[in-house]
Design goal:
The complex is a heterodimer of chains A (273) and B (266). Helices cover 82% and strands 0% of the residues of chain A. Chain A has two domains: 42 residues; 217 residues, Orthogonal Bundle (MetI-like fold), CATH 1.10.3720.10. Chain A has 273 residues and is mainly α. With 266 residues, chain B is α/β, with parallel strands linked by helices. In chain B, strand 7, helix 5 and strand 8 form a beta-alpha-beta unit. The longest helix of chain B has 23 residues. Chain B is globular. Classes of the chains: A mainly alpha (273), B alpha/beta (266). The interface between A and B is medium-sized, with 30 and 40 residues.
Chain lengths: 273, 266
């Protein structure tokens, strides 16, 4: 019966995707240009003592980046953020899979997690400082508590919504618990997991930077607070721009992966019969 | 019956679902006795809710009987799927994140088989189910019938000696079902496996089977075992044979009252 087949024509789909890619790029360029114009106009209205212009900010940023102290600060933030991110993603994935696979634990944990997710975590920072002391550990811990919860929640929901027949198939193929987790649960829940990673990424960065803004002697968060104390608006703006560009770039990459994964799942479920 | 030819043996198999909240315990199945001969094509038909799928879960080792024993090739089946039994489910269980080839190779890879040996098994199996030219495609690109054939291929590569099929063509249209039935008969002859098919279609059971077990309304027990006496070489053209009409007639005669009872009982 190989003749009785309807397979999507590959070439037009690829062309369609390419033209969509170009239009998305054009949209992005248009959006950035628009934002720069709004920024420039705002500077003219508010005054550059409060809001430096895009050009001034870019100049200031290149001066900061050329400063010999900058790499050490960036490395400090990068190290703290990187470590926090690895812990948040790996920990969130493990806990999320476990809670999603065990129904009762998931039901108990879900409201607790949602409550934890919604509290302002800055209130816990004094406790974190007492626990971890001044230094990189406290920043990492603060980044982790921001980032891990969305990863857990998304992973848990992703695992809960996995089609039950996959688990039956796993048992029929005599897979061990670990094999089921890595070969069935994670790939089946991957679209949700990536959504969780995307939000976890942003919140881990936020947590790490907030951690650096208080009780820290190094890092971009520390530079930011120092500039705020001396009312150095150009530096504040330049550092904010630096962080926004980095975070947006990383988030966009994850968003593209996220959309692709979700689309492939929709294609599958929408095509049954 | 020669005992050495008995592959699967059920004795007094009963399944009672325990009481949930205020509801009474549900006696779903049994007590059931059955001897499945090595290499035969056996189908189970019965009214909706009579416990056909429960029976398949018990035989597969996916669930434990409340009472009674199940032995496969002389060893008891309890709580896990024994080596040598393959299961194909009613729902599409193909993994959307893997290509057709990787889906088919899945169980062999998990078992740690060498890639070369995997290819030697997967290629001819995909060819047998007509999916060879789609080895690189993903399930989302296939029709429902093709995905179900992929699930059958994924099970066949493990070379099961007993193949359990839970209404695998339930979601397909009548013409596709007839053709899939022919393919299944080809695969059955090719592999020499025993087939245990759960179906709600009397035609499908009559067309494919050597023997048909007719189940009563809940709690399901066998009320008749019908021998079709078809030759091993057969295909869907049997439907025009007067004997086919007699077999389906007998099945319906047994089932009509039971189906009415199931319908009345909700």
């Amino acid at each position: 019966m190989p003749g009785a087949v309807d397979i999507d024509p590959a070439v037009p789909a690829a062309e369609h995707a390419r033209s969509r890619g170009w239009s998305a790029l054009a949209d992005t360029v248009l959006l950035i240009t628009g934002m720069l114009i709004v920024w420039q106009v705002a500077t003219l209205i508010i005054g550059h003592e409060v809001l430096t212009s895009p050009l001034e900010t870019a100049r200031r940023l290149s001066a900061i980046m050329a400063d010999p102290d900058f790499p050490a600060h960036a490395w400090e933030t990068g190290r703290a953020f990187g470590t926090a991110l690895i812990i948040a993603l790996a920990g969130g994935l493990t806990i999320g899979v476990a809670l999603g696979a065990h129904r009762l634990s998931g039901q108990v944990a879900a409201p607790i997690l949602v409550a934890l997710y919604s509290i302002p975590k800055i209130t816990l920072y004094p406790v974190i400082l007492l626990l971890f002391g001044l230094g990189i550990s406290a920043k990492i811990a603060f980044g982790v508590i921001h980032g891990i919860i969305p990863v857990i929640i998304f992973t848990m929901n992703g695992v809960r919504n996995i089609n039950g027949v996959y688990f039956r198939a796993a048992r029929a193929m005599r897979l061990s618990g670990m094999q089921t987790a890595s070969n069935i649960i994670v790939p089946a829940a991957l679209p949700e997991i990536v959504s969780g990673f995307r939000i976890g990424f942003s919140l881990t960065l936020l947590g790490t930077l907030i951690g650096e803004m208080f009780a820290s002697q190094r890092g971009i968060g520390y530079m930011l607070v120092k500039a705020m104390e001396t009312n150095d608006v150009a530096t504040v703006m330049a550092l904010a721009l630096f962080l926004i560009v980095l975070a947006t770039a990383a988030s966009s990459v994850l968003l593209v992966i996220d959309r692709r994964l979700h689309q492939s799942v929709i294609a599958q479920s929408g095509d049954s019969q | 019956m020669n005992t050495s030819s008995v592959q699967l043996c059920l004795r007094g198999v009963t399944r009672v679902f325990p009481a949930v909240e205020q509801q009474k315990p549900l006696h779903a199945l049994g007590p059931l006795d059955l001897d499945l001969r090595r290499g035969e094509f056996f189908s189970v038909v019965g009214p909706s809710g009579c416990g056909k799928s429960t029976l398949l879960d018990l035989v597969a080792g996916l669930a434990r009987p409340t009472a009674g024993t199940i032995t496969f090739e002389g060893r008891p089946v309890a709580g896990e799927v024994p080596d040598g039994i393959g299961v194909v489910f009613q729902e599409d269980a193909s993994f959307p994140w893997l290509s057709v080839y990787d889906n088919a190779a899945f169980a062999l890879r998990r078992a740690g088989m060498a890639e070369k040996d995997i290819r030697e098994r997967v290629d001819p199996t995909l060819a047998a189910v007509g999916l060879q030219s789609f080895a690189g495609a993903y399930p989302a690109q296939l029709s429902g019938g093709m995905r179900q054939r992929l699930c059958i291929a994924r099970t066949l590569v493990t070379r099961p000696r007993l193949l359990l099929l839970d209404e695998p063509f339930g979601a397909l249209d009548q013409q596709t079902r007839l053709l899939m039935g022919d393919e299944l008969l080809d695969l059955w002859r090719l592999t020499d496996a025993t087939v245990f098919l759960i179906t709600h279609s009397l035609d499908e059971a009559a067309l494919l089977s050597d023997r048909i077990g007719v189940m009563s309304a809940r709690p399901g027990v066998f009320i008749d075992l019908v021998d079709t006496a078809w030759p091993r070489e057969r295909d869907s053209r049997i439907v025009s044979d007067p004997a086919f009409g007699r077999v389906t007639g007998r099945l319906w005669e047994m089932l009509r009252g039971q189906s009415l009872k199931a319908l009345a009982g909700g």
